[in-house]
Design brief:
The protein contains 4 helices and 13 strands. With about 240 residues, it is of the alpha+beta class. It has one domain: Jelly Rolls (Sandwich), CATH 2.60.120. The strands form 3 sheets. Strands 4, 5, 8, 9, 11 and 13 form a 6-stranded antiparallel sheet that branches. Strands 7-3-12-6-10 form a 5-stranded mixed sheet. Strands 1-2 form a two-stranded antiparallel ribbon. The longest helix has 19 residues. The N and C termini lie far apart (about 60 Å). Bound molecules: calcium ion. The site of calcium ion has 8 residues, from strand 8.
Length: about 240
């Protein structure tokens, strides 16, 4: 009971905290909930990996339906019952725990106040073996959009006080849909609005089970490095 009271108090405190400062992000809760009286809390993900990035004009990976898409590649090395993906702009660092992957673009624009209305997708490729993760294969891969989200009320407000940050949970943790199989995934991020996307962002991937060997990177070269695969020969 003591633990429950503590959790409830922490939850209520975090609500106040969010209200006081929109630029902080709380723990990343899974689909599994626990009720303590009138308060229902989400059980936090066991593993959370964070990525700090910066999106700017001319750095997009692809234009889809007039929207400039940026991708983060994710290698899932073991069956995952659920994955949570959330994204906020501008990036918040306070309270974000290791492991944090800090992109070069972020390091260069760390102090930028720019932000954008985020929109995320979780996509799965037809690449299921680590050896097949090559630039050529990834460029020719077929991608299926598993889920997407524009605005989540669970996320902190943006500096303009709008709740335009994004969050999604995908999997069968609560028995609703399919689990995530081993393979290459990507998170697509863009702005709800068409046109230029500019600003810092924090992207997080949460898993309810320990996922050793999960790799997240902006490029396939970086991803291969994290997966302990040899460097590809430049053609
Ligand atoms: Ca949005």
């Amino acid at each position: 009971m003591k633990k429950l009271i503590f959790v409830t108090a922490t939850f209520l405190f975090s609500l106040l905290y969010f209200h006081a400062d929109a630029q902080k992000i709380g723990t990343f809760g899974s689909s599994v909930t626990e009720s303590a009286g009138p308060v229902t809390i989400r059980i936090p993900y066991h593993d959370v990996i964070s990525y700090l990035g910066y999106a700017a004009e001319g750095t997009e990976d692809e234009t889809r339906d007039g929207k400039k898409f940026y991708y983060l590649y994710v290698w899932i090395p073991a069956y995952a019952p659920e994955l949570g993906v959330r994204m906020m702009s501008p990036a918040a660092k306070e309270g974000v725990k290791e492991p944090i992957i800090v992109s070069e673009a972020y390091k260069e624009h760390e102090d930028s106040k720019d932000f954008f209305d985020t929109y995320i997708t979780l996509e799965r490729s037809d690449i299921f073996n680590p050896e097949d993760v090559t630039e050529e294969n990834v460029n020719g891969a077929n991608w299926i959009i598993l889920d997407s989200n524009d605005d989540s009320r669970e996320m902190p407000k943006q500096p303009n006080r709008k709740k335009y940050n994004s969050l999604l949970r995908y999997g069968n943790l609560t028995g609703s849909s399919e689990a995530l199989i081993v393979g290459l995934y990507r998170i697509g991020f863009t702005s709800y609005k068409k046109g230029d996307v500019k600003g810092t962002f924090l992207a997080q991937i949460g898993s309810p089970v320990k996922l050793d060997g999960v790799a997240i990177a902006k490029t396939i070269e970086e991803l291969r490095k994290q997966m302990n695969l040899p460097e590809e020969e430049k053609k």
